Amino acid sequence: MMVPASVRRTMLRDEFAASITDLNAAMKGVNISKRQRAHTLASEHIEVLEEVLESAKRKFKRVVGKAVSTKKQAEELWEASHDAVMNEYLEKALKGGELVEMELDMPQFVSDESATDSLHSLEANSPPKCSP
Fold first, then answer.
1. Quick check: 23 and 12 in contact, CB under 8 A?
2. CA distance 28 to 35
3. Contact of 9 with 21, CB cutoff 8 Å
4. pLDDT tens, position by position, 24-69
5. What is the pLDDT of residues 85-126, one digit of tens each?
6. pTM for this prediction
7. Cα 31 to Cα 117: distance, rounded to the nearest angstrom
8. 14-23 pLDDT tens trace
9. Read out DSSP for the chain?
10. What angle separates helix 20-42 from helix 5-15, to the nearest 10 degrees?
């Protein structure tokens, strides 16, 4: 049995104490869903064509070489991640009012003579190499 919209609205308002704004918001959501379903049904025959077109674009980019390699994407993601972490660290350090010193294992720049001397001392102290 179908209930007319006016009777349905009156029942919801009087018996269930639903506000008019709630009813209007619910109707708006229903209408949006109806439009989306109608759009999906109308564009169903075009969907196959869009998939074929997207596949052709990917293949064309791969052949021409304009596509970004996954290795390059991975490098960009690591750089972005590193930048984000460093920014977060600096923001926390600046908010705290003091900058915490970090020990970094970075090589020290030395003169050529001392580098050569330390290299020779390492070679002299290293164990003999085994030949296969």
1. yes
2. 11
3. no
4. 999 999 999 999 999 989 888 888 889 999 999 988 888 887 656 7
5. 999 888 888 877 655 555 444 444 444 555 555 555 555 554
6. 0.37
7. 81
8. 999 999 999 9
9. ----HHHHHHHHHHHS---HHHHHHHHHHHHHHHHHHHHHHHTHHHHHHHHHHHHHHHHHHHHHT-SPPHHHHHHHHHHHHHHHHHHHHHHHHHHHTSPPP-----PPP--HHHHHHHHHHHHHHSPPPPP-
10. 140
Q: Is the pLDDT at 1 greater than 70, yes or no?
A: yes
CB atoms under 10 Å from CB of 93, counted, come to 13
The one-letter amino acid at 74: A
**Nearest by Cα to 60 from 72, 49, 52, 71:** 52
